[in-house]
Amino acid sequence: KAGVTQTPRYLIKTRGQQVTLSCSPISGHRSVSWYQQTPGQGLQFLFEYFSETQRNKGNFPGRFSGRQFSNSRSEMNVSTLELGDSALYLCASSLGRAGGGYGYTFGSGTRLTVV
Amino acid sequence: SQQGEEDPQALSIQEGENATMNCSYKTSINNLQWYRQNSGRGLVHLILIRSNEREKHSGRLRVTLDTSKKSSSLLITASRAADTASYFCATDGTGGGNKLTFGTGTQLKVEL
Protein backbone atom coordinates (compact mmCIF):
# COMPACT_ATOMS: atom_id res chain seq x y z
CA LYS A 1 0.00 0.00 0.00
CA ALA A 2 1.58 3.28 -1.11
CA GLY A 3 2.09 5.92 1.56
CA VAL A 4 1.34 9.62 1.47
CA THR A 5 3.28 11.27 -1.33
CA GLN A 6 4.31 14.89 -1.17
CA THR A 7 5.93 16.73 -4.04
CA PRO A 8 8.30 18.33 -4.41
CA ARG A 9 10.59 17.29 -1.53
CA TYR A 10 12.64 20.47 -1.62
CA LEU A 11 11.89 23.91 -2.98
CA ILE A 12 13.76 27.21 -3.02
CA LYS A 13 11.75 30.30 -3.85
CA THR A 14 12.33 34.05 -3.81
CA ARG A 15 10.36 36.48 -1.67
CA GLY A 16 7.22 37.62 -3.43
CA GLN A 17 6.83 34.48 -5.52
CA GLN A 18 4.10 31.93 -5.08
CA VAL A 19 4.35 28.18 -4.58
CA THR A 20 2.09 25.15 -4.93
CA LEU A 21 2.67 21.99 -2.93
CA SER A 22 1.02 18.70 -3.74
CA CYS A 23 -0.13 15.80 -1.59
CA SER A 24 -1.44 12.40 -2.69
CA PRO A 25 -3.08 10.60 0.24
CA ILE A 26 -3.30 6.89 0.83
CA SER A 27 -5.88 5.31 -1.45
CA GLY A 28 -9.28 5.34 0.25
CA HIS A 29 -8.39 8.09 2.71
CA ARG A 30 -10.82 10.97 2.46
CA SER A 31 -9.30 13.39 4.96
CA VAL A 32 -6.19 15.44 4.22
CA SER A 33 -4.63 17.87 6.68
CA TRP A 34 -1.71 20.23 6.24
CA TYR A 35 0.77 21.39 8.87
CA GLN A 36 3.64 23.85 8.92
CA GLN A 37 6.62 22.91 11.06
CA THR A 38 9.28 25.39 12.12
CA PRO A 39 11.86 25.25 14.94
CA GLY A 40 10.29 28.28 16.63
CA GLN A 41 6.56 27.54 16.33
CA GLY A 42 6.55 23.76 16.14
CA LEU A 43 3.73 22.02 14.29
CA GLN A 44 1.04 24.48 13.32
CA PHE A 45 -2.26 23.39 11.76
CA LEU A 46 -3.00 24.92 8.35
CA PHE A 47 -6.10 23.23 6.88
CA GLU A 48 -8.20 20.11 6.92
CA TYR A 49 -10.08 18.86 3.88
CA PHE A 50 -12.67 16.13 3.88
CA SER A 51 -14.65 15.08 0.82
CA GLU A 52 -13.37 18.06 -1.18
CA THR A 53 -14.54 20.58 1.42
CA GLN A 54 -12.36 22.63 3.71
CA ARG A 55 -13.59 21.73 7.18
CA ASN A 56 -11.03 23.56 9.29
CA LYS A 57 -8.55 26.36 8.84
CA GLY A 58 -5.72 27.34 11.12
CA ASN A 59 -4.63 30.81 12.11
CA PHE A 60 -2.70 31.70 8.97
CA PRO A 61 -3.07 34.68 6.64
CA GLY A 62 -5.12 34.51 3.47
CA ARG A 63 -1.92 34.02 1.46
CA PHE A 64 -2.21 30.38 2.45
CA SER A 65 -4.88 28.49 0.57
CA GLY A 66 -5.63 24.96 -0.45
CA ARG A 67 -8.03 22.62 -2.14
CA GLN A 68 -8.90 18.97 -2.43
CA PHE A 69 -9.84 17.19 -5.63
CA SER A 70 -12.39 14.46 -6.21
CA ASN A 71 -9.65 11.79 -5.99
CA SER A 72 -8.72 13.18 -2.53
CA ARG A 73 -5.42 14.60 -3.76
CA SER A 74 -4.76 17.99 -2.23
CA GLU A 75 -2.74 21.06 -3.04
CA MET A 76 -1.79 24.03 -0.96
CA ASN A 77 -0.72 27.37 -2.32
CA VAL A 78 1.23 30.16 -0.70
CA SER A 79 1.26 33.48 -2.50
CA THR A 80 3.55 36.46 -2.00
CA LEU A 81 6.12 34.41 -0.13
CA GLU A 82 7.85 35.84 2.91
CA LEU A 83 11.09 34.75 4.56
CA GLY A 84 9.06 33.52 7.52
CA ASP A 85 7.27 31.01 5.30
CA SER A 86 10.43 28.91 5.21
CA ALA A 87 9.41 25.66 6.85
CA LEU A 88 8.73 21.97 6.48
CA TYR A 89 5.18 21.55 5.16
CA LEU A 90 3.62 18.25 6.11
CA CYS A 91 0.55 16.60 4.68
CA ALA A 92 -1.35 13.90 6.53
CA SER A 93 -4.14 11.65 5.39
CA SER A 94 -6.64 9.57 7.35
CA LEU A 95 -9.71 7.47 6.73
CA GLY A 96 -11.88 9.88 8.65
CA ARG A 97 -11.75 12.97 10.74
CA ALA A 98 -9.70 13.28 13.94
CA GLY A 99 -12.69 13.27 16.27
CA GLY A 100 -13.66 9.84 15.02
CA GLY A 101 -10.49 8.34 16.45
CA TYR A 102 -8.50 8.02 13.25
CA GLY A 103 -4.73 8.16 13.22
CA TYR A 104 -2.94 10.24 10.63
CA THR A 105 -0.39 8.99 8.11
CA PHE A 106 2.11 11.68 7.23
CA GLY A 107 4.10 12.26 4.10
CA SER A 108 7.81 13.05 4.23
CA GLY A 109 7.10 16.74 3.77
CA THR A 110 8.16 19.53 1.46
CA ARG A 111 11.06 21.62 2.69
CA LEU A 112 10.43 25.19 1.48
CA THR A 113 13.19 27.76 1.68
CA VAL A 114 12.38 31.38 0.87
CA VAL A 115 15.37 33.58 0.03
CA SER B 1 -1.24 27.70 19.21
CA GLN B 2 -0.15 24.49 20.90
CA GLN B 3 -2.81 22.46 22.66
CA GLY B 4 -0.31 20.22 24.38
CA GLU B 5 3.04 20.61 25.99
CA GLU B 6 5.48 17.79 26.41
CA ASP B 7 7.81 17.37 29.32
CA PRO B 8 10.77 17.08 29.35
CA GLN B 9 11.78 19.03 26.25
CA ALA B 10 14.81 16.77 25.87
CA LEU B 11 15.76 13.41 27.35
CA SER B 12 19.00 11.47 27.06
CA ILE B 13 19.22 7.87 28.25
CA GLN B 14 21.31 4.75 27.77
CA GLU B 15 20.19 1.87 25.59
CA GLY B 16 18.14 -0.59 27.61
CA GLU B 17 16.72 2.03 29.97
CA ASN B 18 13.10 3.13 30.00
CA ALA B 19 12.03 6.54 28.69
CA THR B 20 9.01 8.41 30.01
CA MET B 21 7.52 11.46 28.35
CA ASN B 22 4.59 13.49 29.61
CA CYS B 23 2.01 15.55 27.80
CA SER B 24 -0.37 18.10 29.23
CA TYR B 25 -3.26 19.59 27.29
CA LYS B 26 -5.80 22.32 27.85
CA THR B 27 -9.28 21.35 26.66
CA SER B 28 -11.53 18.30 26.76
CA ILE B 29 -10.65 15.71 24.15
CA ASN B 30 -12.13 12.78 22.24
CA ASN B 31 -8.79 11.02 21.95
CA LEU B 32 -5.06 11.56 22.32
CA GLN B 33 -2.41 10.26 19.96
CA TRP B 34 1.37 9.91 20.10
CA TYR B 35 3.64 10.33 17.11
CA ARG B 36 7.36 9.92 16.46
CA GLN B 37 9.42 12.05 14.10
CA ASN B 38 12.90 11.20 12.96
CA SER B 39 15.04 14.19 12.11
CA GLY B 40 13.33 16.37 9.51
CA ARG B 41 11.02 13.64 8.27
CA GLY B 42 7.29 12.99 8.45
CA LEU B 43 5.59 11.89 11.64
CA VAL B 44 4.76 8.27 12.34
CA HIS B 45 1.63 7.35 14.27
CA LEU B 46 2.44 5.26 17.35
CA ILE B 47 -0.70 4.84 19.41
CA LEU B 48 -4.15 6.31 20.01
CA ILE B 49 -5.96 6.34 23.34
CA ARG B 50 -9.59 7.35 23.65
CA SER B 51 -10.87 9.63 26.38
CA ASN B 52 -12.68 6.74 28.10
CA GLU B 53 -9.49 4.63 28.28
CA ARG B 54 -6.89 4.91 31.00
CA GLU B 55 -4.06 2.79 29.68
CA LYS B 56 -3.01 1.21 26.39
CA HIS B 57 -0.10 -0.95 25.31
CA SER B 58 1.55 -1.56 21.97
CA GLY B 59 4.76 -3.58 21.92
CA ARG B 60 7.30 -1.67 24.03
CA LEU B 61 4.99 1.34 24.31
CA ARG B 62 2.66 2.05 27.21
CA VAL B 63 0.41 5.10 27.21
CA THR B 64 -1.66 6.38 30.11
CA LEU B 65 -4.32 9.04 30.08
CA ASP B 66 -5.69 11.01 33.03
CA THR B 67 -8.51 13.22 31.76
CA SER B 68 -9.07 14.74 35.20
CA LYS B 69 -5.53 16.12 35.11
CA LYS B 70 -5.56 16.65 31.34
CA SER B 71 -2.33 14.72 31.01
CA SER B 72 -0.88 11.67 29.31
CA SER B 73 2.39 9.80 29.50
CA LEU B 74 4.28 7.67 27.02
CA LEU B 75 6.62 5.00 28.35
CA ILE B 76 9.10 3.29 26.04
CA THR B 77 10.60 0.26 27.70
CA ALA B 78 14.04 -1.20 26.96
CA SER B 79 14.99 1.70 24.70
CA ARG B 80 17.11 1.17 21.61
CA ALA B 81 19.32 3.56 19.67
CA ALA B 82 16.70 3.42 16.89
CA ASP B 83 14.18 5.03 19.27
CA THR B 84 16.15 8.29 19.02
CA ALA B 85 13.60 10.76 17.67
CA SER B 86 11.19 13.51 18.66
CA TYR B 87 7.92 12.42 20.20
CA PHE B 88 4.72 14.44 19.99
CA CYS B 89 1.35 14.11 21.58
CA ALA B 90 -1.68 15.27 19.59
CA THR B 91 -5.22 15.93 20.70
CA ASP B 92 -8.52 16.60 19.03
CA GLY B 93 -10.19 18.98 21.42
CA THR B 94 -13.95 18.40 21.58
CA GLY B 95 -14.39 22.08 20.81
CA GLY B 96 -11.57 22.06 18.32
CA GLY B 97 -13.45 21.18 15.18
CA ASN B 98 -12.12 17.70 14.51
CA LYS B 99 -8.54 18.69 13.89
CA LEU B 100 -5.40 17.33 15.54
CA THR B 101 -3.35 19.82 17.51
CA PHE B 102 0.22 18.85 18.32
CA GLY B 103 2.28 19.49 21.38
CA THR B 104 5.76 20.93 21.53
CA GLY B 105 7.53 17.57 21.49
CA THR B 106 10.18 15.72 23.49
CA GLN B 107 13.56 15.05 21.87
CA LEU B 108 14.73 11.62 22.96
CA LYS B 109 18.31 10.51 22.49
CA VAL B 110 19.19 6.91 23.24
CA GLU B 111 22.92 6.36 23.52
CA LEU B 112 24.78 3.09 23.06
Low-confidence blocks of residues of chain A: none
DSSP strand (E) fraction of chain B? over 45%
Tell me how many strands of chain B there are.
11
The overall pLDDT of chain B, averaged over residues, is: 92
Number of helices of chain A: 0
Question: Could you characterize what this model shows?
Answer:
The complex is a heterodimer of chains A (115) and B (112). Chain A has 115 residues and is mainly β. Chain A contains no helices and eleven strands. In chain A, the strands form two sheets. In chain A, strands 2, 4, 5, 6, 9, 10 and 11 form a seven-stranded mixed β-sheet that branches. A four-stranded antiparallel β-sheet of chain A has the order 1-3-8-7, with no helix packed on it. The radius of gyration of chain A is 13 Å and the shape is globular. The relative contact order of chain A is 0.32. The model of chain A has no long low-confidence stretch (mean pLDDT 94). With 112 residues, chain B is mainly beta. Chain B is built from no helices and eleven strands. In chain B, strand 9 and strand 10 form a beta hairpin. At the A-B interface, strand 5, strand 9 and strand 10 of A face strand 4, strand 5, strand 9 and strand 10 of B.
What attributes characterize this protein structure?
heterodimer; A: 115 residues; mainly beta; seven-stranded mixed beta sheet; four-stranded antiparallel beta sheet; 0% helix; globular; B: 112 residues; six-stranded mixed beta sheet; five-stranded antiparallel beta sheet
Task: Annotate the secondary structure layout.
The complex is a heterodimer of chains A (115) and B (112).
Chain A: E1 5-7, E2 10-13, E3 19-24, E4 31-38, E5 42-50, E6 53-57, E7 64-68, E8 74-78, E9 87-94, E10 105-106, E11 110-114
Parallel strand pairs in A: 2-11
Antiparallel strand pairs in A: 1-3, 3-8, 4-5, 4-9, 5-6, 7-8, 9-10, 9-11
Chain B: E1 4-7, E2 10-14, E3 19-25, E4 29-37, E5 43-50, E6 55-58, E7 61-66, E8 71-76, E9 85-93, E10 101-102, E11 106-111
